[in-house]
Specification:
With 483 residues, the chain is of the alpha/beta class. It has helices spanning 7-27, 67-83, 108-119, 123-132, 136-144, 150-153, 160-173, 178-183, 206-211, 221-228, 256-259, 269-279, 304-318, 355-392, 395-398, 403-408, 429-436, 446-462, 464-472; strands at residues 57-63, 85-87, 93-95, 102-106, 188-195, 201-203, 238-241, 289-294, 330-337, 415-422, 476-477. Strands 1, 4, 5, 6, 7, 8, 9 and 10 form an eight-stranded mixed sheet that branches.
């Protein structure tokens, strides 16, 4: 037996190894978002500071969660819009992708949204290899079981999501921060997570960071993606330092008529509740840390922000007050929902499903139900606005002088197009079955990635609302994507 194999030597080696782990554990610190002492509504990464050119069309893409399945499906939407050119009524040719103003991203969808905001057209050269067709999940697991990371993983405030964030930074974001997004000319990217303490939605934009008196520009995109996709239990929460109460937080001008009222007007009550939940983040004394998990817990299709904005828009219009959307004539929303419905055969057997299966189903069912409801709420709003406008513009109403009736019919003139981009819209049953079988994970076979991308374009082309949009704006497709 060699001297290095003696029990004493092995014990000494173990002691040294434990000491190394203890030292590395003590040195492990998460990135800390920087504080600010004053807020400036005219600066930072927010909708109000993006280039506005009196737009009449507001185009929003809402990317749902769902791991690589969601990332690939939403990427397929970007590819379709990029390859599709339309000729407008003035004879000018434009790419549909260049008309997008806002992209909301949740969990898997946040990777595609953030990466497009960062790289623009450059994304289409290597996103497949860098992320979509990569075993990201396997690499996270490998790093978790690498002894070199055990010390850091055992330290306070540094968990598996921080490890994942480092990986995302290396393979996709290259150290970029929201300052890099602010410099870009592309659409506003709104990645969302969930405050695990209250269940409130947490948006990565400067308006929310004003509430916690912090500088969003210094936050890495990889941490936003990690927070948005931090599935509870599987991954740790991402911790944000809360400095709320230490700066001159300013309520946006358009929100002031409603934020302090005890009885907010309909239909803006839900939107005001969301805004008050954001304001509650500002108690930095009692809540010095915010722990963020997967955005899908609070809104899996990224539609809550869209619905809130429309409710505020309507309430301001009803009150005769100004809003950021006063010149908008069309609100065009692509609801990109990668929700899958894999077949379940539990009812065919006497033996009940296992504990893990039940927990996953119990957690997923409410999320899936709200995903459906969010799209239907958008459609209901569109139908209600259209119906009230028809009444207001009818010959019978012109002779009505009742101010209460006039007030009841005071809705925005904007037309809403709810373009549903989801698996059930596929006419090909075999393809639908295939996509529904794809799991929610961060690794998929290359074939699945390609078929998800192709399905996105097929669904958009078949959408009645998309075809209605083309007809209403007098546009026709001159360069459709290949089948």
């Amino acid at each position: 037996m060699g001297c290095n194999d003696s029990p004493g030597a092995r014990a000494s080696l173990a002691a040294v190894w434990l000491a190394v782990l203890a030292v590395t554990a003590g040195c492990a610190t998460r990135p800390v978002n920087e504080p600010i002492t004053r807020t400036d509504p005219a600066s930072g990464y927010r909708f109000e500071t993006r280039e506005q050119t009196d737009k009449q069309n507001l185009v929003v893409l809402a990317f749902s969660g769902g791991g690589t399945r969601a990332a690939a499906f939403s990427y397929g939407v970007l590819e379709f819009l990029r390859r599709t050119e339309v000729v407008g009524p003035r004879g000018n040719t434009v790419r549909l992708l260049d008309q997008v103003d806002i992209i909301t991203g949740v969990s898997g969808g946040s990777f595609t949204a953030l990466a497009y905001g960062l790289y623009g057209d450059k994304l289409f050269t290597d996103y497949e290899q860098r992320f979509l067709k990569r075993d990201v999940q396997g690499e996270i697991i490998a790093r978790t079981f690498n002894p070199a990371n055990w010390g850091r993983l055992s330290s306070n405030g540094w968990g598996r999501s921080e490890l994942a964030s480092e990986l995302y930074d290396e393979i996709l974001f290259n150290g970029a921060t929201f300052a890099d997004l602010e410099k870009g000319k592309g659409p506003l990217i709104l990645a969302s997570a969930t405050d695990i303490s209250t269940g409130a939605r947490f948006l990565f934009n400067q308006r929310v960071f004003d509430v916690i008196c912090s500088d969003l520009d210094s936050v890495r995109l990889s941490r936003a993606a990690a927070a948005s996709s931090a599935v509870p239990v599987v991954l740790s929460s991402v911790t944000i330092k809360n400095y709320g109460g230490t700066c001159n937080t300013i309520t946006p001008m358009w929100a002031r008529p409603f934020i302090d009222t005890a009885d907010p007007p309909r239909p803006a009550a839900r939107a005001i509740r969301s805004m008050k939940a954001e304001q509650a983040f500002g108690d930095g004394v009692r809540r010095p840390y915010l722990h963020l998990v997967d955005g899908g817990v609070s809104d899996n299709v990224g539609m809550r922000s869209v619905l809130d904005a429309l409710e505020i828009f309507e309430a301001l219009h009803d009150a005769g007050l100004r809003s950021p959307f006063d010149n908008v004539k069309r609100v065009i929303v692509f609801v990109v929902n990668s929700l899958s419905s894999p077949p379940i055969n539990w009812d065919e057997h006497e033996t009940p499903p296992g504990t893990v299966d039940v927990l996953l189903k119990a957690a997923g069912t409410p999320i899936d139900a709200f995903s459906y409801e969010a799209t239907e709420l958008l459609r209901d709003t569109a139908a209600r606005w259209n119906a009230l406008r028809r009444i207001r513009n009818s010959a019978a109403f012109k002779d009505n002088k009742d101010p209460e009736v006039a007030k009841a019919l005071r809705v925005p003139d904007a037309e809403i197009y709810a373009i549903d981009v989801s698996f059930p819209a596929l006419a090909d049953q075999a393809e639908l079955d295939y996509l529904n079988r794809q799991p929610t994970s961060f690794v998929l076979p290359p074939e699945a990635v390609d078929r998800l991308r192709a399905a996105a374009g097929t669904i958009i082309m078949a959408s009645p609302d998309f075809q209605r949009l083309l007809k209403d704006v007098g546009a026709k497709i001159v360069a459709p994507p290949p089948p």
